[in-house]
Amino acid sequence: MGGRTLTAVSLFVCLSSLFSHTVGEIKSERIVADSRSMIVFEKFGFTQRGHVNIIVSNVSFSSALGRADPKLFGFFLLSDESFIQAVYESQQHNHSPNPNPQANSDDNKCVLFSSFVQLLFNFDELPQNSPSFLNKTFPITQPDEYSLIFASCVPETTVSMYVRTEMYNGLPDGPRDYLSAGQSSLPSIYTFFATAYIVFVGIWIYICLFKNRPSTHHIHLLMGGLLLVKALFLICAAEDQHYIKVTGTPHGWDVVFYIFQFLKGILLFTVIVLIGTGWSFLKPFLQEREKKVLMFVIPLQVIANIASVVIGETGPFNQEWITWNQVFLLVDIICCCAIMFPIVWSIRTLRETSKTDGKAARNLAKLTLFRQFYIVVVGYLYFTRIVVFALKTIASYKYRWVSVAAEEVVTLMFYAFMFYMFRPTERNEYFAIDDEEEEAAEAALQREDFEL
Ligand SMILES: *[C@@H]1O[C@H](CO)[C@@H](O)[C@H](O)[C@H]1NC(C)=O
Ligand SMILES: *[C@@H]1O[C@H](CO)[C@@H](O)[C@H](O)[C@H]1NC(C)=O
């Protein structure tokens, strides 16, 4: 039971740090007739004053091979470092003959008795009365990031139980912090960026409604909507994290959080697609294939958001959790690729018309604008999907907030750039033309091939 299961669990342990939207809140889970030999519950970064509280109740286990020894079921904590050692150790056990024939061979192979794990309790500590109930709190002796794992070392057994887990770090002045070490500054980070976007919305309203009202198009209103939704999303994220930090549960803010996350995702992709097609400031209508991109991306965003809710609200203990993570990744990648098509089509169209319609300067300006937009969108998607992922993986658990802050900084820069490039402007100022410039532009168009 050692090596292979540990290797399988490794995937869960690694992924759990990458995806979960919140960790460390109080969670109650119902395990029904589960035959997995390991169930990963939560991953949490503990400080010196860290504690784990576990309440298990209504425990029952049945084995196909007669009565199972309760000592072979239990909960333990495992840090990432010990994890590698434990995998190594269990492989040694599997490949070498038992060095101590007197010892119970089950005990020897059972991960609960490995010297690398921190055993919390086995089921032989469960009181005999029924329904069973056990409430235990364990202080953390060594600050680190640990996964809480349940293991069953008896093959072909099923376990049913209620588990309520509570992980927190004590604060010097008494109260508890239910956010993992390295994430406890998230409420402040979200509040800061929410304020930045509220200022941004104000500036955008001023530009659209007062400064450049005549050249404001529908797309600019939609962009304003996107900014507003992004600001509201950050406010919800701040509240959600604040309540989790203080009380361990989000007090319903998670629902609003998911609603705004959904609206934000749809609006962002729609705005990028519409700007990419040049809708409303270059042409008043959408072509059939451009509509198809939107009709394709919006349902995918619905799926991505369902996946994100499942990922955030359950955890690795859920057997389909990995699948949902894969669904989310796949759908996200498809959406990111799909929204590039309209920009590429626009660039192609502009290049073709520039050869025929004799307005070289104007076309060159548009072409440059779209090419810059293409590069900025690619850069933004690359950073928020790949660099942020890498930062999360590399950074120590104490600095997990860095990846969140980096993502928000880059997103704000992207919004600022996109909104600046496509702000309402008077056309003449945009594409000022005199003969000299016209000739220069013609030459430039011929010289430069905007290859993608
Ligand atoms: C455990 O079982 C008892 C009866 O068997 C039931 O009354 C109780 O609600 C159960 N506990 C939980 C947490 O559901
Ligand atoms: C579990 O025990 C702690 C004290 O160790 C206590 O504060 C808490 O109320 C108990 N929980 C339940 C559900 O009995």
Automatic annotation (TrEMBL):
Signal peptide (residue range): 1-24
Keyword list, A-Z: Membrane, Signal, Transmembrane, Transmembrane helix
Domain GOST seven transmembrane: 187-428
Lineage: superkingdom: Eukaryota
Membrane association type: Multi-pass membrane protein
Record bears the keyword Signal: yes
Transmembrane portions of the chain: 189-209, 221-238, 258-281, 293-312, 324-345, 373-395, 401-422
GO cellular component: Golgi apparatus; membrane
Domain CAND6/7 N-terminal stretches: 29-169
Protein's cellular compartments: Membrane
Protein name: Uncharacterized protein
